[in-house]
Design a protein that fits this description.
Helices cover about 40% and strands about 20% of the residues. It contains 8 helices and 7 strands, in the order αααβαβαβαβαβαββ.
Length: about 220
Amino acid sequence: MEAQELYAQVDEHLEGLFGPPDADLEAASRRAVDAGLPSISVSPAIGRFLQVVALSCGARRILEVGTLAGYSTIWLARALPADGELVTLEYDPTHAEVARQNLAAAGLAEQVEVRVGAAIDTLRELTEEGGEPFDLVFIDADKAPYAEYLEASLQLAHPGTVIVADNVVRQGAVALGSSDDPSVTGVQRFAELAASDPRVTASFVQTVGAKGHDGLAVLVVR
């Protein structure tokens, strides 16, 4: 059995431990396919990990940078208390509309606000609005400006805020030196900032699974 086939099989086995497939999440994936969205949502395993992180830090306010069809948004929003809220940022209006449909179908529309626009602009708007800081931030958008997303997220955080970033290993390319790929150089700059910034304590973890070899960064604001 090849490694990728094994990774996918283990993912399927582990997810099966938690019971039958989730109807709302499966419907969200179907709407994404029907709308022609790219197949880049987090895996169920990573979605469940995000939910556990949100529960473990008692998140009442969550910020998500990169909505796509709202698959990870559903996982995160389900961890919120009744008075909690989630703000998710999406560049593409079509993606945002699919996400709104998925969130409404999952009964989460009242707790989730989908903001449309370039994330660096909507992050700036959130800072200017001066609302309560976020308890958890999940970054999963275009990779080139990941360092800028981190810097902006820190302006919206408080001591103890957890920041999770996806796709930070890039099949190992993050460790292979110079690259012409802006997604790789973006996560390299992000990694350098996360490792050196005294405002956070950070850890990077490689992952394998149905989506191959990648990794997550988990940071806590000091």
